[in-house]
Amino acid sequence: MRRLMTVFLLAAAATPAAAASFDCGKARAADERAICANRALNDQDVRVDQLYGITRHLVPMGGRDAIIGEQRAWLKRRHACGANQACLTKSYDRRLVELNRVMERVYQQGPF
């Protein structure tokens, strides 16, 4: 478990700051433009993207489709926020809680 956490922390530290999970130069949707314009939202986007990528790879094959489906559903909910920063922040906060719960289940199933 400690090794897995170390890998996660190293991966998080290696990611450049202020790099949204999508190309801000191509952002057209209101939610994406708001994320690119706000450093805190941008940082949350990076954290969600990193944690989602890690969980998607660590979850056993039978659970990956569910993780992917949950992420797609969350992206639709995030998109519905438009440029509302409070809504976007709440959406990211909730998604981070969800992904952290998945990681806790992965840790409990071990071995690492």
UniProtKB/TrEMBL annotation:
<dbReference type="Pfam" id="PF07007">
    <property type="entry name" value="LprI"/>
</dbReference>
<feature type="domain" description="Lysozyme inhibitor LprI-like N-terminal">
    <location>
        <begin position="24"/>
        <end position="99"/>
    </location>
</feature>
<keyword id="KW-0732">Signal</keyword>
<protein>
    <recommendedName>
        <fullName>Lysozyme inhibitor LprI-like N-terminal domain-containing protein</fullName>
    </recommendedName>
</protein>
<dbReference type="InterPro" id="IPR052755">
    <property type="entry name" value="Lysozyme_Inhibitor_LprI"/>
</dbReference>
<dbReference type="GO" id="GO:0005576">
    <property type="term" value="C:extracellular region"/>
</dbReference>
<feature type="signal peptide">
    <location>
        <begin position="1"/>
        <end position="19"/>
    </location>
</feature>
<dbReference type="InterPro" id="IPR009739">
    <property type="entry name" value="LprI-like_N"/>
</dbReference>
